[in-house]
Structure prediction request, 227 residues.
Amino acid sequence: GAGVSQTPSNKVTEKGKYVELRCDPISGHTALYWYRQSLGQGPEFLIYFQGTGAADDSGLPNDRFFAVRPEGSVSTLKIQRTERGDSAVYLCASSLGQGSDTQYFGPGTRLTVL
Amino acid sequence: AQSVTQLGSHVSVSEGALVLLRCNYSSSVPPYLFWYVQYPNQGLQLLLKYTSAATLVKGINGFEAEFKKSETSFHLTKPSAHMSDAAEYFCAVSTGGGNKLTFGTGTQLKVEL
Prediction:
């Protein structure tokens, strides 16, 4: 079946601009996660949705970052007033929703802020 | 708080040799532990996971890992390396509730002829 998909695969923007990154989870997965992976680092947790609600947003670095999942499926990560330090690969994952369940990752969106 | 330490950012082995990638975790509650592999320009793929059943966990591609509570370790091994094993490997911990994974910084595995 189809895996987790993310669009766009690459995004180049200028400092101060607004960007949206999209994630399509595996059908039937109630849990959805966003992570950020900087060069040479492991992925860092940003936010976790269970259904439509954000169950844990403790990883969002500041109020420029926001994510939504209005219908409990597709999610959008929104970044306002982008900064060069936001450049990274943004990963999305989905799972059936229990703690031991496997998180299936998408290929990521590489964001470059010039 | 939970954390993961992966000793050795780069490991090089000869084809056919034993692969050993180290992972130590810190968690105040019984953890779930995972190993993921990331090939160039691809997403993370689960190799194996520990979920409080058997302490020796077998995964895909001949990899296995042993959960040792006394050592707070979950090292990844493979008896005989293959060229196709060259990739970056991440250890991760979750403390349940269906929530976040905390990843280590990764180990780049190189396999030489």
